[in-house]
Amino acid sequence: QVQLVESGGGLVQAGGSLRLSCAASGSIFRNNAMAWHRQAPGKQRELVASITSGGSTNYADSVKGRFTISRDNAKNTVYLQINSLKPEDTAVYYCATDRRWSPTGWKYNYWGQGTQVTVSS
Question: Which stretches does DSSP call E strand in the chain?
Answer without folding.
Answer: 4-7, 10-13, 18-24, 34-39, 46-51, 57-59, 67-72, 77-82, 91-102, 105-111, 115-120
